Amino acid sequence: MMEVDVNPKACPLADGHLTKKLLDLVQQSCNYKQLQKGANEATKTLNRGISGFTVMAADAEPLEIILHLPLLCEDKNVPYIFVHSKQASGRACGVSRPAITCSVTIKEGSQLKQQTQSIQQSVERLLV
Asked: Residues 6 or more apart from 97 whose CB is under 8 A from it?
């Protein structure tokens, strides 16, 4: 796999290990119907206050189409992180197309609560 030059605005960027953990959780949240895919849907989850965290692709073209999300996440106190590849993100979201953004939503009594919290903590450590 070729390493793409990542836009410096795509920060914080997950390393390989965290990317794998993130995309695994994205995949699981897709199975549990706790995933919203795409920039518009992610924006809605943030506005409704149901986003656990937001994952964005650093190779979105142009990146500006998703750069309103980090600001919104900071407003709403929701952790966000960039992964290298929209292709990998799309696969994790269970769609055949690239996904530039997805939002893992919060659900009462969800089986994913612990993993979501662990990711939130990892992401918050990167933001400091």
From this structure: 90
- DSSP 8-state code for residue 34: -
Q: What is the Cα–Cα distance from 37 to 76, expressed in whole angstroms?
A: 19
35-46: b or e for each residue (b if 16 or more CB lie within 10 Å)? bbbbbebbbebb
Whether a cis peptide bond, with omega within 30° of 0, leads into 62 is yes
Maximum C-alpha span of the chain = 40
At 52-73, the pLDDT tens digits run 999 999 999 999 999 999 999 9
Burial, 62: exposed, middle or buried (Cβ in 10 Å; 0-12, 13-18, 19+)?
exposed
Q: pLDDT tens for residues 3-27? A: 556 788 999 999 999 999 999 999 9
